[in-house]
Amino acid sequence: MRRHILVCHLPLIILLSSSLSSSCRSDHQIQIQALVQFKASLIDPLDNLQSWTTNATTSPCSYLGVQCDPVTGTVTEISLASMNLSGRISPAIGALAALTRLDLGDNTISGGVPPELSNCTQLQFLNLSCNGLTGELPNLSAKLAALDTLDVANNYLSGRFPAWVGNLSGLVILAVGENSYDRGETPPSIGNLKKLTHLYLSSCYLTGEIPESIFGLTALRTLDMSKNYLTGGIPAAIGNLCELWSIQLYSNNLTGELPPELGKLTGLRELDVSGNKLSGEIPASLAVLRNFEVIHLQWNNLSGPIPAAWGELRFLKRFAVYENNFSGEFPANFGRFSPLYGIDISENAFSGPFPRYLCHGKNLQYLLTIGNSFSGELPEEYSACHHLVIFRVHGNTLTGNLPAWVWGQQSAEIIDVSNNGFTGRISPAISKAQRLKELWLHNNRLDGEIPREIGRLWRLKKLYLSNNSFSGVIPPEIGNLSKLTELTLGGNMLTGWL
Q1: E strands, 297-339, in order
Q2: Whole domain around residue 447: which residue ranges?
Q3: The predicted structure's pLDDT at residue 496
Q4: Is residue 19 situated within a structural domain?
Q5: 234-252: per-residue pLDDT in tens?
Q6: Half-sphere exposure of residue 433, counting CA atoms within 13 Å on the CB side?
Q7: Which CATH number do you get for residue 436?
């Protein structure tokens, strides 16, 4: 009897097996068809997608950039970033229902974002950034509840800001900036994204004040609302974001003072509030922060001294406070313990001796102190500074002989020591500065002959030597500088012609 039962059910087993096999083949064909249509809408000049064929023996899992579930064989990932692709995103992408990752970033794909993407209900990672996408971003929030990364930054998307992103409660990374949305206020609904660690809303044409709801995102590490039209002050509630390590609020219309509550952000590495209308002094609470790598405060109305404690920073790489009203002596130890790469403190009212240790880490490439009141001589410590690209100390009251290290900068593109009281002569070592494009020496007390070696600086475009005490014959080699567009020699005791 048992044998009879088994025999009776055998056709059913065969039928089920046949049905499942047919279903798998059907899913396989759907995936291939969707991928081939997706490929057909793209332009692939480097032939990166040549493996995407309709060959019956080829699995889509073998396609370049495609990953599949190892058990079911369904397509779960498409990663085609930085492959020089153009064309458009085919609506056929919506047929890949099991897709969890789609990365098309850093190509030149154009056209709109297909609303069919919302059919990929398992999608967790969506990167369409750095393309040429246009039109309004379709509402994807209804079906993409699993999404944790949404990056459509650096496109040409237009229309209303996608306020619906506030419904994607699982988002960890949200980057919708650098697009061409209509002007409007920041949606308070972004405050619903409690898991958010990185928020990029740069250049979104946002107006009004920063909504308080954003300061409830306590997991936030990066806050970037730069290059908008934000007004009002930086709220004290920013101190609630204890995990923040990067604040990017530059190029807005923010007013008021820097809130002391910033001092609560002990992990803060990057602070850029440049290009606003901020005023007042740097809060004492900021002086205790020890992890700064980048401080950009330029183009504001800030005043008072630079905190002396910032001279003890050990990770600082870039420091810019130019065009403010800072005053007093610059911190004596500034740069002594940090790997400074660039510093610009121009157009303030700093006084006292020239900072001694800015190049102590031997990484300095950009040093600008234009338009201050530094006095005395340039410190000899800079003789170990071999990587300067831009060196500008124009418009101070510096004196003494220009040291030898100034002339032999092999990486220098601009040397500007004009409008000071420097003495001495131009060293023939200037010939080592083969990358030099601009040499500003005017309005000093330099003397002696102009060395012929200047004629070897074949990249030189600007040469300002006026109002010194140079004498002798103008070197004819200057006439060989084919790229020279500006030359001033007046106010000297030179003879000859070019």
Answers
A1: 301-304, 318-320, 325-329
A2: 399-497
A3: 87
A4: no
A5: 999 999 999 999 999 999 9
A6: 30
A7: 3.80.10.10
